Amino acid sequence: MLMIRLRRGGAKQNPVYRVVVSDSRKDTQADYLDQVGFYNPNVEPPEIRLDLEKVEKWQSQGAGVSETVQSLIRKAQQQP
Q1: Could you tell me the residue range of the domain that residue 66 belongs to?
Q2: Which of 3, 10, 12, 32 could link 24 by a cystine bridge, Cβ 3.0 to 4.6 Å?
Q3: Which domain of life does the UniProt lineage start with (predicted)?
Q4: Other CB atoms closer than 10 Å to residue 48's CB: what's the count?
């Protein structure tokens, strides 16, 4: 099953995350099919960039969404 989830990057003690579509059976650091966004919790306010059209496209094709990404989607929809 495909999942939309976070993939960690960045330096030690300074994480940044890519929001990616990948196979749920594989490790989070394994290859991914598509990058649909970016999340940087280290700045104030946290930076969230999501391509909501891509997220909807992948969900319509049966991809699940992790709880954390679901909360990021809600926050991104509230941004102006």
Answers
A1: 2-78
A2: 3
A3: Bacteria
A4: 18
Residue pair 9/69 in contact by the 8 Å Cβ criterion: no
> Could you give the number of structural domains in the chain?
1
Q: What is the pLDDT of residues 21-79, one digit of tens each?
A: 999 999 989 999 999 999 999 999 999 999 999 999 999 999 999 999 999 999 999 98
Count the neighbouring beta carbons within 10 Å of the beta carbon of residue 53.
Answer: 9
Which of 20, 29, 15, 17 has its CA nearest to residue 2? 20
The distance from CA 40 to its chain's CA centroid, rounded to whole angstroms, is: 11
Ramachandran angles phi, psi of 75, nearest 5°: -65, -40
The CATH number of the domain holding residue 31 is 3.30.1320.10
Alpha-carbon span 67 to 69, nearest angstrom? 6
